[in-house]
Amino acid sequence: xxxxxxxxxxxxxxxxxxxxxxxxxxxxxxxxxxxxxxxxxxxxxxxxxxxxxxxxxxxxxxxxxxxxxxxxxxxxxxxxxxxxxxxxxxxxxxxxxxxxxxxxxxxxxxxxxxxxxxxxxxxxxxxxxxxxxxxxxxxxxxxxxxxxxxxxxxxxxxxxxxxxxxxxxxxxxxxxxxxxxxxxxxxxxxxxxxxxxxxxxxxxxxxxxxxxxxxxxxxxxxxxxxxxxxxxxxxxxxxxxxxxxxxxxxxxxxxxxxxxxxxxxxxxxxxxxxxxxxxxxxxxxxxxxxxxxxxxxxxxxxxxxxxxxxxxxxxxxxxxxxxxxxxxxxxxxxxxxxxxxxxxxxxxxxxxxxxxxxxxxxxxxxxxxxxxxxxxxxxxxxxxxxxxxxxxxxxxxxxxxx
Length: 402
What we know:
It comes from Penicillium diatomitis. One of its GO terms (biological process) is methionine biosynthetic process. Pfam families: Meth_synt_2 (PF01717). InterPro entries: Met_Synth_C/arc (IPR002629), UROD/MetE-like_sf (IPR038071). The chain is α/β, with parallel strands linked by helices. It has helices at 23-33, 39-59, 102-109, 132-139, 159-162, 178-198, 209-213, 217-225, 233-247, 281-287, 332-350, 354-358, 380-397, and strands at 84-89, 117-125, 152-155, 203-207, 256-261, 292-296, 316-322, 361-365. The protein has a single domain (23-396), classed as TIM Barrel. Helix content is 38%, strand content 12%. Strands 3-4-5-6-7-8 form a six-stranded parallel beta sheet. β5, α10 and β6 (292-296) form a beta-alpha-beta unit. α1 packs antiparallel against α2 (39-59) and α6 runs parallel beside α9 (233-247). The longest helix has 21 residues, at 39-59. The protein is globular.
């Protein structure tokens, strides 16, 4: 990754990709799944609603426009099921999961079995992008000069590893160890990024709640008490850093990559874990080769801004100080103060001026509005008000900047 500060993207005002689906689209998706309408009819509705939400984002003054993830059921999309060597299943033994992984624990504690999952069943190989057509359609809706700003969100490369117990992520007769398994996942992501780049994509955001789980004392305690684990949680976090960095081998200099960390964003605005970034900050900010961190910071569950003192001057942070979970609007002046407070820690850590530190910063909602297609406990008007507030905060702090 180039050592210089990569900007435009990211922008001063950002959002995290997923936006509330219109009721009409949700109904058509359900009808399609029941076989009541053909797939072509669903695609027609998806295309129209993507056009509408793109127009909405542009009107609100956003540049890193997404398609709202309107073609997806969940935020991670279909990357893993689209690979050779992975299979989506609905019937499985619940004992394959780490019961202390925060999202798994939430299901089990409520008496529910986790929903569909994806299992490695053979050698992993990229055989065609399931994202690129989504990006191409999105690109067709904006002037060619603006295609480089568009954002597409990708599944975290560790997504189908952390959730499973040691030895359950892949068959031992297929991969001898994590290094072999991660190696093929990294190659698959290298291929995916090249396909997207060749289609004009220059702005990618990985969505990774898993990394934030390493901030959770409850998760860390469970991990330590699990006799099946062959290495520590810190060792596993280090392995995930290397996995990401291997995914970026050969990344073109003009392609921006970021990672979003949050503590869960499920139906009804539910979160799954808590804990500040303190214990992972040095490795996260200094060893992970991304240009930008999109960090949840809307409530005390994400801790304070102190860990930002470890953010290098060559990297950006987008502060998610505005919640996407509920409609109540934050006070704009208070949010501006919080952004400045965060920038002071960056300035202190790098021995630079506040003005210089603010140049590394942007603002956003803390997460998407519909990580699951059913969406958060907020309506369309509430979402628009939140997006407008984010843009206003950015305009006040960075006048005239996109």
